[in-house]
Amino acid sequence: MTLKQKIISAYCSIAVLFGLYGWMFGQFKYRGLFYNLGRGLVWPVTIFPALGQIIGAVIIVAVVIAVLVFGKSRN
What we know:
The protein is mainly alpha-helical. It has 2 domains: 1-41; 48-75. It is built from 4 helices and no strands. The N and C termini lie far apart (51 Å).
């Protein structure tokens, strides 16, 4: 098992545990299991809210660059 596979499996394991905990005991326990598993997939953003703002800013910059680069008319 390579290091990349270990990191991905550790991340997915934490995501599943985070989702199960949220489903059984968390603030959103009234929501369904799959809602909480979805929240578990982005667990670093849930734990560190500033990280979500940084990721959002990176996505906005990437979209703007993509529009500028690929949105040129080809005359």
